[in-house]
Here is the input.
Amino acid sequence: MEDSEERTRLAKRRKEIAEKNRERYREFLLSMVEERKNALELMRRRHAYYTKLITESGIKTAQEFFDKYKEHFLMYGINLDISDNKSYCSIYLELGDYDYESYGVRDGKNGNLAEVSPNVSFKELFNNVEVNIFTEEEI
Here is the structure.
C-alpha cells in the first residue's frame, strides 16, 4: 500500500513540476514563435526581391543570374556561388550573431524564367534548419 501511495505522490509532484515549467517558459516559447514568424516574413520579402530581379531582367538561367548580380550582391556583403553544372546559384547572407540565410536560384524549366527556391536554409537557436518559407514546413 505504501508503494502505491508513494508512486501516486511522485506522479502528482512530477505533474506539478511540469506545469510550473510550462508556465515559466511560456513567454519564452511565445517569443520564439513570434521570432520565427518575423524571420519567415523577412525571408519571403527577400525571396520576392530576388524573383523581381529575375523577372525585370528576363533571366532564364542560374548562370545568367550569377553573371548579372555577382558584383552587385558582393557590394552588400552577399555571396553568390554557382554550382559545378551551372544550373544552381546560391545566395548566402551572413547575418549578425553568426546567423545566416541561404537561398537558391535554379534554371527555368522549358525556357521559362529562372526560379528562386522557396526552401531556405538558416540558423535558428543554434540549429541549422531548412524550411519552405511559404508552407513553413521543415525539410
Q: What stands out?
A: The helical segments are 2-57, 62-74. The longest helix spans residues 2-57. The beta strands are 78-82, 88-94, 100-106, 115-116, 119-124, 127-132. The CA atoms of residues 40 and 133 lie 6 Å apart.
